[in-house]
């Protein structure tokens, strides 16, 4: 009977993962359409008005739509305009402000010839509006003369499948060297967080958090002390379950690491020795609990 229930659980999880992937794809397609539409409008406006358009792009006006905005860089790497946080970089060589990982991506994009087409790329980007975390940004861009116009958006919420992939990596690392893995998680090593996903670990005997990939202030805290306005990430009953079953799922209310809003989070957890290792994903906005 237990085997049958486990098989049913695996099948149900597959369905949930499929639904999450479809929702994420729909959200991504919607953002992509809006971003490309804004870029097309900006390119047409720039062709009609030339460099006078740059000041318009940098104002809170028709080329700032919700979280989308236009930015412009010339082929020498100088930021010419921005309707978003990168406005502070206007007039500066962006190559002096980005890390070595990003430089080849920007150099390649700026070196592409003008062909009248909208191109696209992904890159990690962190700023004050992401809480300092590097979040995957998808950007559409088009070259007009010596100017590259672009519109980007942060990728949609991570899916259940991506959460499980990160959990698998974390479980393997904890099994190989728990202490070094905890240090890496607490140091925000990029192996243990991706966009709005992160790993956290609880020592089951003491019921204390020993590693947290988003909030270092929680490390060392007893789980019972976390019962506040955003709830408790995991209960003593959950620890008993994971100790007996080896793997569990649970849901709770928790602050989103990027938006700061309290949202519904669904977590997957596994027992590795005397530790519970967990990764949770935030439900799509339309499915948030009341």
UniProtKB/TrEMBL annotation:
Secretion signal, residue range per the UniProt entry: 1-24
Keywords for the protein's UniProt record, in alphabetical order: Signal
Residues covered by the Double Cache domain: 63-282
The name this protein goes by in its record: Cache domain-containing protein
Organism: Halopseudomonas formosensis
Phylogenetic placement of the source organism: Bacteria, Pseudomonadati, Pseudomonadota, Gammaproteobacteria, Pseudomonadales
């Amino acid at each position: 009977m237990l085997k049958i229930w486990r098989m049913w659980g695996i099948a149900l999880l597959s369905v949930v993962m499929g639904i999450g992937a479809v929702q994420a794809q729909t959200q991504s397609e919607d953002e992509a359409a809006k971003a490309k539409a804004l870029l097309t409008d900006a390119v047409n406006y720039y062709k009609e008005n030339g460099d006078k358009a740059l000041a318009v792009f940098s104002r809170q006006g028709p080329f700032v739509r919700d979280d989308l905005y236009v930015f412009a860089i010339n082929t020498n790497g100088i930021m010419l305009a921005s309707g978003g946080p990168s406005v502070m970089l206007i007039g500066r060589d962006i190559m002096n402000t980005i890390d070595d990982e990003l430089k080849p991506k920007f150099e390649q994009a700026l070196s592409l010839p003008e062909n009248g087409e909208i191109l696209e790329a992904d890159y990690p980007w962190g700023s004050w509006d992401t809480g300092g975390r590097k979040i995957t940004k998808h950007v559409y861009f088009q070259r007009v003369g010596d100017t590259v116009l672009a519109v980007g958006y942060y990728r949609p919420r991570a899916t259940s499948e991506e959460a499980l992939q990160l959990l698998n990596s974390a479980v393997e690392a904890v099994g190989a060297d728990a202490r070094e893995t905890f240090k890496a998680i607490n140091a925000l090593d990029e192996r243990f967080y991706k966009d709005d996903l992160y790993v956290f670990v609880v020592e089951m005997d003491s019921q204390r958090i020993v590693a947290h990939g988003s909030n270092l202030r929680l490390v060392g805290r007893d789980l019972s002390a976390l019962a506040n306005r955003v709830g408790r990430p995991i209960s003593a009953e959950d620890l008993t379950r994971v100790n007996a079953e080896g793997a569990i799922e649970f849901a709770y209310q928790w602050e989103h690491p990027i938006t700061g809003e309290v949202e519904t989070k669904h977590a997957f957890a596994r027992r590795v020795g005397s530790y519970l290792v967990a990764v949770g994903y935030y439900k799509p906005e339309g499915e948030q609990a009341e």
